[in-house]
Design goal:
The protein has 11 helices and 10 strands. β5 and β6 form a beta hairpin. It is globular and about 55 Å long. Helix content is 42%, strand content 16%. It has helices at residues 3-12, 18-30, 39-49, 54-64, 69-81, 85-92, 106-112, 130-138, 151-157, 179-189, 205-219, and strands at residues 98-102, 119-123, 142-146, 160-164, 167-168, 172-176, 193-196, 234-238, 244-247, 250-253. The protein folds into 2 domains: 3-82, Four Helix Bundle (Hemerythrin (Met), subunit A) (Up-down Bundle); 85-259, 3-Layer(aba) Sandwich (Rossmann fold), CATH 3.40.50.10470.
């Protein structure tokens, strides 16, 4: 596939997990060695098409600010492949734990399949968890779907609630829709809430500001093509709803040190590009 066509494919891809999108984007950007000047424009177009995928912002910010972008892109792809967050989650979970999560978390899922002693209760928001159920079943992990109306009861029975970050800074989390529901129920019942933040999910506040503005523009009831907030795939919630963070270096209490940005603030990514 021609590099430009590859980039168009990545820009239009929907439904893929963030790690796969980073891999595809890395291959596409790495093929632009014939046109180094185009790498910033290509990065800008990718994040415009995937505004809430933090790992792509991380990749594009690091690549577009690097003095050796074509070396950096492969190093970053390798960093995603070597993400230890799933292993750290598996090591941190209590024995025989009951876990509540939502949707189809890729990083948390990698941790859960390493533990044959846990039971996973999954809130299937928008019927997005089908592949996740199949993944758990392939690895003989005990799992049950949970209706939205039973979310509170499931959280009350759980030992830990897991929320996967699509992106975050020290104050805000971009997460799958419904995450605030299980986090609020956990707060009411005193159940710990762990934020699973894999490689590339911790971003400078300027990028999260942009995501919040994009979210508010999409859900603005006076907007030209307004979408109701409950019909979105993502939502924004405060980090105050989380007790701990699981990342590639283990589990730490929620706080600014746990959410240090993993990339520089690349302002050029925020400029609008013609698609």
């Amino acid at each position: 596939m021609h590099p430009i066509e590859h980039l168009r494919y990545v820009a239009r891809a929907q439904g893929a997990d963030p790690a796969s999108l980073v891999e595809e984007t890395a291959h596409a950007l790495g093929s632009l060695h014939f046109d180094p000047s185009g790498i910033v424009v290509a990065c800008r177009r990718i994040v415009e098409r995937h505004p809430f995928t933090g790992a792509l912002w991380w990749l594009c910010a690091n690549v577009s600010t690097s003095s050796e972008p074509f070396e950096a892109v492969w190093e970053l792809a390798e960093e995603i492949r070597g993400d230890r967050t799933g292993a750290e989650l598996a090591a941190a979970l209590p024995d025989d734990a009951t876990i509540v999560t939502i949707g189809s978390p890729d990083v948390a899922g990698d941790g859960l399949i390493r533990r044959g002693d846990v039971r996973v209760l999954v809130l299937d928001a928008g019927h997005t968890a089908t592949q996740f159920f199949r993944k758990l079943e392939r690895h003989d992990v005990d799992n049950d779907p949970v209706d939205a109306g039973a979310a509170g009861a499931a959280v009350r029975a759980a030992d830990v609630v897991l929320i996967e970050a699509l992106a975050c800074d020290s104050h805000r989390i971009v997460a799958p829709i419904g995450s605030s529901t299980i986090a609020a129920a956990a707060h009411a019942w005193g159940t710990p809430v762990w934020l699973v933040a894999g490689v590339g999910r911790r971003l400078p506040s300027g990028f999260i500001d942009h995501m919040v503005q994009r979210y508010e523009a999409i859900t603005d009831p006076d907007g030209e093509h307004s979408v109701d907030s409950w019909e979105m795939d993502v939502e924004i919630l405060p980090t105050s709803m989380v007790t701990d963070v699981i990342g590639p270096h283990g589990r730490v209490s929620m706080g600014p040190p746990a959410i240090q940005p993993e990339c520089p603030m690349a302002h050029e990514l925020l400029r609008h590009s013609a698609m």
